[in-house]
Amino acid sequence: MVISILHLKRLIIVAFYFVQFYGFAQTNLIFKPSFEEPWPDLNSNINWAGILPGTPDHFSPIWAPPPSANWGSPLNWMGYQQARTGNAYMGIITQNVSVIKDSGGDTNKLYVEHFRISLANKLEANTCYFSGLYFVNGNYSKRVSNRLGIYFSGVLPVKSSTLYPEFDEFHQPQIELDSNQFFSDTLNWTLLSGVFKANGGEKYVVYGNFYNKKRTKWISKNPSSIQLFPTLGIIHDSAMAYVYIDDVFLYEIPSAAALSDTSLCLGQSVGIGLNNDTTTAVYNWLPSTGLSCTNCPNPIAAPNSNITYTLTKTVRGCSTQAKVRLTVHPKPTLSFNLSQNKFCVNNATVQLQGSPPGGSFSVIGPAHTLVDDLFRATQSGLFQFQYHYADDKSCSNSSAFQNLWVYPLPAKPEINEKDSLLCVSRGTITLSASPTNGLYSGEGISGPLFKPNKPGSTSVYYTVSDNNNCSNSDTLIIKVLDCAQGQF
User: Fold this and answer.
1) Using CB atoms within 10 A as the burial measure, which of 139, 210, 245, 251 is most buried?
2) Which residues are CB-contacts of 177 (< 8 A; sequence separation ≥ 6)?
3) Are 184 and 132 in contact (CB under 8 A)?
C-alpha cells in the first residue's frame, strides 16, 4: 500500500490520540485496518472478509472506472464520501426490513450485514483492549439505525440466513453504540470505541448489527441530507440504514503490574509498581498501610510487617489486578555498652565488645586510633561510639551512641630540689614542690619529709591529681652516701 503524505499525517494524529488519552502507542493489532487492498476470498481466514450470505461492500478506487464505479471511492452507489485515511472503506447495512416471506410465511424480517477480520494472534485472557472504528452514514440511505457494534469471538462466526442473524441475542458485542442515540451525520466520520476485557482465545473481530428487529430502532434522515447522484447510472433511494466503516483498530492496554514478591528489612522502602504507561487509568492500591500513595501507578511501600498489596487498574470500566507480597524481616537486636566511659588521656585504651559478635565499630571524636576492636585515644575530648551489624538476610542495625570522655592530665608538677647527694647521717630534710597540693611518695618519704636511712639511690615522687582523678607527677633522684666511710 502506498501511503500519501496526508495519509501519513492522519496516522500520526491517530497515534497521538492514543498516546494523549490512553498513554500507550502500541501496534494496531488489526492488520491493514484501512481496507486499501482488494476484497479477499469471502471464505478466506486471512485479513478481512464478508460473512455469507450477507454482502458487505468494499469501496475503493481500484474498482473504477465503470462498470465497477458503483463500488468506487469517493463516489459510489450509496453516495459520495471521502475515506477517512487512504482511499478505501467498507460499507454495511445495519437495518433493512425484507418483504420476502420465510418458510413460515412471515414477512418483515430484519436484514443486516457483517464483515469480519482475523487477528494474527489470539487475545490474552483477563487483558483489557481498546478497540473501535470510524463510521459515517451513506448519503442515499433514508434511515439511521441505533445499532452498530464490534464482537470478538474465538470461533469463526457464521450466519444461517440474512433474515435470521445467528448473532441475534446469543453474541453480545463487546463494543457498541449507545442504543438511545442516533448518529445521522453523512459528512464527518464518527468514532465508536470502547474498552473490554478478553476472555482469552478471541481470534476474530466481527462488525455490524447484532440485534433482532424488535431491538433495532431507526429514524428517518432529514430529506435534505439525502443526495442522489445520477452520474453513476442509477438513482438509489434506499429505505435502509447504511454506514461506511474505516480505520478499525485494536490496541492492548497494559495490564496492572506489580513488583514480584520480595523481601526487605524493617525500615527499608521499595517501589512496588511496574506501571510505566501514562494511561488515563484509575489506580487503587489496597491496603494503604505503609504506602506513599494509593491512587498512583508506582507507590513506595515501607510496611512494618509482612503484607500483600493488591493493585486494581481501571481503564474505562475495564479492570485488571496485580498482587505483590512483601516479607519484612526485623532488624537485628544489638547490645553494646561501654564498661567504663571516663578515662584520662594517659590510659585511654579500650577493648570494645558488641553483640551479636562480628560487627564493626565507628567512632567520632578527636585524634585516636581504632584497630579492629581496640580503641586508643591520643587526645582528650568527647568520643561517640556506635556498633554496626548486618545479619544473614542483609538486615542491618546500629546501636545507640555511647559516649566516652577522655580528660587531659593536670599540668606537670615540679619538685624544687634537683638530683641531690646526701649523707646517710644527715637528719631529715623537708622537700618542696609546686603546686603545693600534691602528694609525695617513695622510700623514706613521710609527707614532705625525707629521711635517708641507708646508702644508695632513692626515687622521690610528687603527684598532683585533679577532680577527674587524672594525675601527673615529677621525680627526684636522691643519692645517699655513707660519709663516715669516705664516700663522696
Assistant:
1) 210
2) 146, 147, 148, 149, 183, 192
3) no
